[in-house]
Amino acid sequence: MIEAILQGFVSVFSAKSLLVILAGVVIGLVVGILPGLGGSGALAILIPLVYGKDPIVAMSFLVALHAVIYQGGLITSVLFGIPGEAASTVTILDGFPMAKQGKAGRALGNGFMASMMGGVFGGLILALFLPIAQPIVLAFGSPEYFMLALMGISLVAVLGGGSVNKALIAGLLGLLLSFVGLHQGTGQLRYTMGYLHLFSGLNMIPVFVGLFALPEVIELMVEGSSIARGEKRPISMADVWQGCMDTFHHWWLVMRCSAIGTLIGAIPGLGGAVATWMAYGHAKQTSKRSLEFGMGCEEGVIAPESANNAKDCGSYLPTLAFGIPGSGAMVLILGALMVVGVEPGPGMMTKHLDLLWTIVITLILANVLGTGIGLLLARDLARITFIRSTILVPMIILCIILGAYGATNNSLDVVLAFFFGGIGYFMKIFDYSRVTLTIGFVLGDYAERYFLISMSGLGPGFLLVSPIAMCLLVVIVIGLASSRMKKLFKNIAEERIERRKD
Amino acid sequence: MPGRLLFDIALFITFLLFLISTLGFRSLNDKLFPLLAIIPALILLACEIGQEFTAYRSGKETEEKTLPDLKSKYLAVGAWMMLSLGIYWLIGFLGTAMLLPFLYLRYHREGWPLSIGLPLGSGIFFYAVFSLALEIRFYQGLLFETILG
């Protein structure tokens, strides 16, 4: 084992590999910034390039590229409120308000440093758990998946903000939207209105781009200023550095959210968006500044970004250990391994241990390099927020069109993005939570699918069969009760203070 | 009638339409989760509408964020959104990448060098990066598709 680890280090730190990793990181960052391409798209385009190459060089390139894509997505999320991938949507909630307040440099510092720490954490966990991953991954069946989805949905109670009624209505609307398309169990078409495009359900990217990015564009058009409101002040590296220091200050939050990300990433089938929403919900639930979330709170950027990169490392666990890809991008990584002549799965643990460790070390190194490059560029990138709206608005609209189109290369998704943009705008001005709608939309389908599988396989008492599911249920109940109790204690404390004043 | 109330009513009608559609599904497995979402949503929305209507009748309706003097701006924004979609539908993405910035900049009376330079740069960038380098096939637009057959 130690020999394989050393071999991995030697492979990664050779001049050729370092150059390839650097190229992968740069391309990954650019792909992350460009709307509409995404990690899977970039991997699909670049896999033919590695055909016939040395497995170590080929995989170093692809793994490095994929590892930093979310760091590129962070830039558009913070600066323009446009999510490159569904998982990046959460970063907008606090990152974009920070940019509006002229704190884009700090938000980028928060995000890049959290991404790096999350990526390194995830990489180390991957290294530690690869040899013993099997029982952990296989312990999760449909009852556990259902409870995880329910755990995410229970965050609606925490993340709503404002009117509880409206937050719930939005969450329920999100649930309903997640059911659009062909029911996988029964073959029933639901709410498709006869459109062939909707048979596979509503795509997340156009929905999220519409809900979150278009309302911001409308606001920008109405106000006619720049993204950063108020007095123009020069953005210095000190702002970016301050963001990095914030992340170190919240190191415990980073660790917890990275653990959430790694765990969810390691469970095949749960999407990346689940990890970031759960991390955000957890951060809000446990923060002393929970009321500031959504208004430009740095913890709201740190939590999802650390989970995002850690989740990617976690998703390598089932992919490499069992050959079970947990996401679209992992299917392509699996394909790339086969293209270079390596059979993924249990055999990798014995036959290609050096390649396995090369991948793990590359993951960590790429995250560090991606953050380094991102931080160097952050100050200049943050200046974009001071460009006047007449220049930015048409460019952002083009990015929205491209982002929505790129999801499935179908123009109907552009129409959908504009449609959800209208809904998102009205939701924003009439105080309906777009966040709870998103949670319902991300998790509704999972909850239904795994509930029905559990019911058909194990009967109505399926929860009692699984100790993990029972534990998750207890965690949900405690989580819901603790947020209620917190409010109750807070009210009691405030009443006491008022009485004393009287 | 305040926009808030109208939006609530629109949502209520949407959920009702969802309910009608759901009742037409064949098996319980198809209906179960949707009904679990629709029924509570309808109850909550009925409460919301009731509250808003009471507030409206008693003249205490909450102040809208949309101020009257901003109405013309919102109309213009709505028109720009429709125009963007229309241009895209008609001349496709690459055409939109040049025409939309040009029209928007001219509408806001920006100088000619910027009004021509930015759309041109945008068109070249999107064409070079996405069409040439990444070989992504954009939607060409109704006009070009009709002309080119």
What this model shows, in words?
The complex is a heterodimer of chains A (502) and B (149). Chain A has helices at residues 2-12, 15-33, 38-46, 55-67, 69-80, 89-100, 104-129, 133-138, 142-153, 156-159, 164-178, 204-223, 237-249, 251-266, 272-286, 299-322, 328-339, 348-351, 353-382, 389-408, 412-429, 434-458, 462-465, 467-501; strands spanning 181-182, 189-190. Chain A is an all-alpha fold and 502 residues long. Chain A has one domain (2-225, 235-465). Chain A has a two-stranded antiparallel sheet. Chain A is globular and about 75 Å long. The mean pLDDT of chain A is 83. By secondary structure, chain B is mainly α. Chain B folds into 2 domains: 3-57; 68-148, no CATH class. Chain B has 5 helices and no strands. Chain B has helices at residues 3-23, 28-57, 71-107, 112-133, 142-148. In chain B, helix 1 runs antiparallel to helix 2 and helix 3 (71-107) packs across helix 4 (112-133). The longest helix of chain B is centred in the middle third of the chain and has 37 residues, at 71-107. The model of chain B has no long low-confidence stretch (mean pLDDT 87). Classes of the chains: A mainly alpha (502), B mainly alpha (149).
Count of β-strands of chain A: 2
Calculate the mean pLDDT score of chain A and round it.
Answer: 83
- List the uncertain runs of chain A: none
Largest sheet: number of strands, sense, barrel closure of chain B? none
Q: Which tags fit this structure?
A:
heterodimer, A: 502 residues, mainly alpha, two-stranded antiparallel sheet, 24 helices, 2 strands, globular, B: 149 residues
